[in-house]
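Sample intake sheet
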Amino acid sequence: MNHLPAATLLGQNVRRLCEMQGMSLDALAERLGWPGEKIADLVASSLDIALDQVDELSAALGVPPHELFDEVTMAENQTRQLRYG
């Protein structure tokens, strides 16, 4: 099994979690007090962030930090969307 780089997983999961919660990336940026460009770079996997920022992201999204780096298959994503709305 090929594993995706951490930056790619983080970007994909931030986008997925926002979509699942009906939150725009701009709303996430505002919640964090980060510029919108920083979130855009994050989801494009072109932003290096500190561990403290991972904690901020997980708190803003209401998930444990490890969930930001989970490899989620399409089937798991659909199940999570059904479960959480």
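Comment: Residues 16 and 33 are 20 Å apart (CA to CA). The two ends are 30 Å apart (CA to CA).
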